[in-house]
Amino acid sequence: MNLYELIEKSGINTEYNGGYDLSKIDITTVEIDNRKCINGSLFVCIEGYVTDGHKFAKKAEESGAVAILAKNRESLEKYNIALNIPVIFAEDTRLALAGFSAALYENPSHSIHLVGITGTKGKTTTSYMISSIYKAAKLDTGLIGTICNKIGNEVIPTERTTPEANVLQNLLFEMKKREIGTCIMEVSSQGLHLDRVSFCKFSTAVFTNLSKDHIGENEHANMEEYADAKAKLFTMCDNALLNADSPYSSVMEKKAAESGAKIYKYGINCNCDFKAENIIKSHAGVEYDIVTKEETFHVKVPIPGTFSVYNSLCAFACAYLEGISPECAIAGLENVFVPGKAENVPTGKDFSVLIDYAHNPDSFENILTTVKEYAKRTVFLFGCGGDRNRPRALMGETAGKFADFTIITSDNPRSEDPESIVRDIEKGIIPTGADYICIVDRREAIEYAIKNALPGDVIILAGKGHETEQIFADRTVHFDEREIVREILRGI
What we know:
The chain is α/β, with parallel strands linked by helices and 492 residues long. Helix content is 34%, strand content 22%. The longest helix is centred in the middle third of the chain and has 16 residues, at 306-321.
């Protein structure tokens, strides 16, 4: 697409003072990383939290970029940058990135059913449950989220829950080309706040819940701002599916109503469009009745816990609204598997090991209360990622209140000192009087848990879930907890 046409189709207000015939400049990619620029790239300068993309505009040109999109002249002049290619100006370059990317890739979200899931917890599990339902219906889907991106059976590594707009639009375009009818996408509050999903059209938008997981510097100032960021999703959807049991669903409902979306609700504790009743919980999973206005369906899900009821109920409701038969939804839920979500690692011993992505106080409480229903003793191993806004002392306090024995260790310390992170967590567990031990090295901590396991123990390795690496200040190492558990068991 030529640059003139791209500007016209982007929906972005831009300025350009001339000097080049934009209709003669072909754009093949939109990039925000100068190292990824090739001949035909439009380089968009983004002012990020850490660095300013404007200072890399010349390097983008040298890499092959044929045009630059910047905030204003001053943003380039402060770095003394002189360019020999056209420069387009847009006040909000993040929004421009989304608009130009959507235009370049022919607005693919308008040609497929895009399902967006937002909330603090449950996004990944719910997305996998919906995907499993579509698989039962023999329909290929796209998947965009925390664990990986998928186009049909092709797995694509991912760096963040919601990709940058140029990556996202390219993924959706590839799905459209391969005639994949539905994409299930996790939508983070940062993805909404930073316009990564702007110019997308969602068939169904889902709200799971909201808790204090992303409050702090460089994220959200308070819960109200956090909720408002989530609510943006419900201004761009046809159907809004909301967790009626969350007090923040009213914020989402207001936005959905203002935008003219059809509103549906699911829950356990109140009357709604999709209600879970007659819930039976065990170590093997949950089963319950889904009561709608028309009829009742019985479902079984091989993931234990009340949170599994919410996630599967949501997945069923979403698929139902998207036209998937109840029979396929029931079959898909019965056979669902989510990597790193209450994932059982076979031990061949008289104790169990679960790997779970729980990494905040609310998810700690969820997994611990679930497991305590059937475990003789819960052994809870966890750490806290460095360079993240996590309430470390509260994490320690929650573990102390709900676990029978706690092992405080490392997660991904990143640039922080691992021992310092462990001490921060320890401040919260000490006042609870709970039994615990600190072992900074995570592998050693896992080995300690397994070698000291008692009959009937359930050891929960929390925090890393599906991840297969551990990130330190000076290195990133392979770290797959499934492999580590098996190696330790072989050595016993």
